[in-house]
Amino acid sequence: MGQLSHPVRCIPISEGISHWVRREADICARQKEDVVKIATVFSISEVSAGILLRYYNWLYQHSC
Questions:
Q1: Backbone φ and ψ of 29, nearest 5°
Q2: How far apart are CA 32 and CA 38, in angstroms?
Q3: Residue 49, exposed/middle/buried by CB under 10 A (0-12, 13-18, 19+)?
């Protein structure tokens, strides 16, 4: 997949914890990546992979 652009900014929430604000295009690209990866691993359609990810509260993790 293509390289994602950098987050807009990092907002400190409390000591040692930050929150990344991402662009909508980056979020969509990450979601598409997840769907494609899950579809490939389980040999299912992307539609079915999207349904599974939503059903299980999108627990697939990225290493940022």
A1: -65, -45
A2: 10
A3: buried
**Taking each helix axis from N to C terminus, what angle separates 24-42 and 46-55, rounded to the nearest 10 degrees?**
110
Which pTM value belongs to this model?
0.60
CA gap 63, 33 in Å, rounded: 13
Q: Residue 21 in contact with residue 8, Cβ under 8 Å?
A: yes
User: Tell me, what's the pLDDT at 22?
Assistant: 78
Partner residues linked to 14 by β-bridges: 17
pLDDT at 64: 47
d(CA 34, CA 7): 18
CA distance 6 to 24: 12
